[in-house]
Specification:
Low-confidence stretches: 1-8
Strand content: 15-25%
Bound molecules: adenosine-5'-diphosphate, magnesium ion
Largest sheet: 6 strands, mixed
Strand order of the largest sheet: 8-9-10-5-11-12
Radius of gyration: 19 Å
Structural class: alpha/beta
Distance between the termini: 58 Å
Order of helices and strands: HEEEEEHEEHEHHHHEHEHEEHH
Shape: globular
Amino acid sequence: TGNFQFSALLHKKTPEGIFPLRSIGLQNITYSYPGAAKNALDNISLSIPVGSRVAFVGPTGSGKTTAANVLLSLLTPQRGELLLDGIPVLDDEITSWHLCCAQVPQSIHLLSDSIISNVAFGVRSSDVDEDRVWDALEAAQLDVLVSDLPYGLHTPIGDNGISLSGGQRQRLALARAFYRSAKFLILDEATSALDNKTESEVIQSLEIIGRRCTTLVIAHRLSTIQKCDRIYEFDAGEIVASGNFDELKDMSPSFRQMINLQSFINH
Ligand code: ADP
Ligand code: MG
């Protein structure tokens, strides 16, 4: 088809995945969960420039996680398209897109296995490249910690091995994403604005990721939102405002209300 020829020209396709070069977007997406009375997403469109850091903000239930899952192609919308470089992703390209994506959730599921199997997650042990594991650990700022462990890469995590702090677990999840050379990362911040310990972990992760990956963070805290290039404000399944921090402050009363409330809580 015409689409296929176009996508071959615009996205970079390799055995390791399909890499957008300019943008990751949603076009007129409507999504409804099976049996739900109303749409979780109602005709939303957005565009994430490759290399940028974007935040989704908005009240609980406004559709942020659903939109993230449509971007990851984990949910198939009833209407609309996931676009890479402006071109709809075809059904047979979804597996390649998955290879390019990684999620760093609030509570990371680690295997009670060695450091190396947690970094090279799902890779057959005979296929694991130890040099790349060290590169990924270094990028995630865990190399010093791991090299000081009695069994290095082969030190078990969990009950019979080392126990990791929340921040170290999150960095291990980053190392896993870096090992896979994921190009699009989604971080889901803890939902309470009062949970300041987790806050510093997300901020630290953002610093570590830097400009290595295109990053989407589902954000609740001022300090995270301020670190993003573009913000999409969700309400009841729609995007009600978008822009950088100052633009949103100017144009959106609900955004102003949210940041004023947090300044009040934090001081
Ligand atoms: P947010 O991440 O902004 O809190 P969600 O995307 O999780 O919002 O939810 C959007 C809407 O979809 C809400 O009304 C929520 O109740 C509904 N919803 C979310 N997940 C499911 C699900 N698995 N099944 C049915 N409804 C869901
Ligand atoms: Mg959510």
